[in-house]
Design a protein that fits this description.
The complex is a heterodimer of chains A (116) and B (152). Chain A has 116 residues and is an all-alpha fold. Chain A has seven helices and no strands. Chain A has one domain (2-111). The chains are: A mainly alpha (116), B mainly alpha (152).
Amino acid sequence: MVNASLFLFLSVSKDGGFIHWLENHLLICPFKKLTSLDCPGCGLQRSLVALLKGDVAASLKFYPATLPILILLVFTLIHLKFDFKSGALIIKGMYIFATAIIIINYIYKVYHQQLF
Amino acid sequence: MSEEQEGQVPNTPQPEQPINQPFNQGNTFPPQGGGYGFGGMQQALPNATAVLILGILSIVTCCCFYGLLSLVLAIIAIILAKKDKAQYFSNAGMYTEGSYKNLNAGRVCAIIGLVFSIIIIIACIVFVSIFGFGMLSDQDAMREWIEQMQNR
């Protein structure tokens, strides 16, 4: 318990800490390196870091599909543990929803020339 | 539980019985019941959870490494799902309905992920074949080209 709170404190502290380290060690997208254009997954890491900081609006702005995907993953784990009756159907629906958001987000980016 | 199941996999397609019949539980039980700890109780399909998780991860990793990671995950999920589906239909009474639903959901997710990653791989190939590596690594040239396209 003490360890967990210490970890949380370290991760929200401004300099140093886990989030700061993460912010400076994002993986480089190979697609972006190759074409200098964003791929449909670009923004996921920035959005995750923003979410870890507690900034939901920035997270949605960087990559709107992060929150649905996280909810989907958490729901899947809960479903596997407790086995809801129509859980599989809900997972399918949420999955298609997340995919649709990713595609719409990318089309929007292409349309508004935000690819760089 | 799953280890016991996997031990039984080679036994399940029995030669004298047609595979695609769901409701013949009575005679499809393997004669040697020693491997099943629950003796007639329904079990979850061995790979249902794995297929579901892999299928969902295939969309999360849709763009990692030109979509190849997603492609691999999706293909593994689809192969596992195919295997488990055959197993489910060979003796339907043995496995729980819920795990079969999970399996199907995972399969749908994996197919969507597969299509998505294939689109991305094709996009990569098209980009490289149109522009070539030289121009692609030069960001200013790309930007110029796009501005030209807009002004046309």
